[in-house]
Specification:
Distance between the termini: 96 Å
Order of helices and strands: HEEEEEEEEEEEEEEEEEEH
Strand content: over 45%
Structural class: alpha+beta
Length: 297
């Protein structure tokens, strides 16, 4: 906070004002990401002025990925400029997990947007509600720069809504997922006051949810966004962002991206076939036993 700034003389005041002014300038460059591939179900974009060449209209994108799993995402990497600015990023996603990190003297933005198609299974009759949750936890912390620790305006937004599948590079990635309603998005952040001095950290915990009325057999799509932004400092969400569902008893959900929510139980037709198979097996064993007994006499 401001009271943590140590100032000695007008020259030091001018220096700090210059640095603050530089931060303000760094924050206004327009990010123009690479175009998302057609039919992508995941799109991760890291933007930072560190990766911008200073030419208006040119991309400030450091890295992108549309690949799930440990072999996909954005590998941990630090981007830097001779001027001294740097930005580090990492991101991985699965059907129900998001892990991310972005930080540095100019961390910029890390946008993780994904969509999934869900099928409702079970024996429940009629319509019922299910609730999906998206939660992220982690740590925002200051970084060492020009002789002190700095932290400025970290924020994390989670959202559940519709997924914009446009492949136009003009799409602003923070709007890739459009929340269904204001209640389906939430933002964690601290006031945009520069913290300079000793090392500081703040726990991050942010979540949102969405409730939908469904029936067994319904198929529906949801979009999820986990977006981290900052001017100076680290935003560590490697603890994970989690997708989860509240489901009625006897109901479970499968997803096109490979997740299963709830505990699957045999469908009625499947259970009947299993029972018939078991009965056939028992009868076969019984017949064999009777035959052996008769033959032994």
């Amino acid at each position: 906070m401001n009271h943590m700034i140590s100032v000695r003389g007008r020259a030091r005041v001018a220096c700090m004002r210059g640095l603050v002014g530089a931060l303000a300038v760094l924050g206004i460059a327009q990010a123009r990401a690479d175009a998302m591939p057609a039919n992508a179900r995941l799109w991760i974009v890291h933007d930072s002025n560190t990766c911008w060449d200073g030419v208006a209209g040119h991309s400030s994108t450091c890295a992108t990925s549309d690949q799930f799993g440990a072999g996909g995402g954005i590998a941990l990497h630090t981007y830097s400029k001779p001027s001294g600015s740097w930005s580090t990023s990492f991101a991985q996603a699965s059907a129900d997990r998001v892990h991310s990190f972005v930080g540095g003297q100019d961390p910029g933005s890390l946008y993780i947007s994904m969509r999934d198609t869900y099928t409702v299974h079970g024996a429940s009759a009629g319509s019922f509600d299910l609730t999906v949750h998206l939660a992220a936890e982690g740590l925002a912390s200051s970084v060492w720069w020009v002789g002190k620790y700095w932290l400025y305006a970290p924020s994390v937004t989670v959202e559940i809504g519709s997924f914009d599948a446009s492949t136009s590079g003009a799409v602003l990635e923070q709007f890739r997922v459009i929340p269904f309603a204001p209640a389906n998005t939430a933002t964690w952040g601290i006031p945009p006051i520069i913290t300079i001095g000793p090392y500081v950290s703040h726990a991050i915990a942010v979540s949102t949810s969405y409730t939908k009325s469904v029936q067994v057999g319904d198929i529906f799509e949801l979009g999820f966004g986990v977006n981290s932004e900052g001017q100076v400092g680290d935003i560590d969400l490697r603890n994970t962002g989690v997708v989860s569902f509240d489901l009625p008893a006897g109901v479970w959900i499968t997803s096109e991206n490979g997740a299963i929510f709830g505990t699957p139980v045999p469908e009625p037709a499947t259970a009947l076939m299993m029972a018939a198979g078991l009965l056939g097996t028992l009868l076969a064993f019984g017949t064999a036993g009777t035959t052996r007994a008769a033959g032994s006499g």
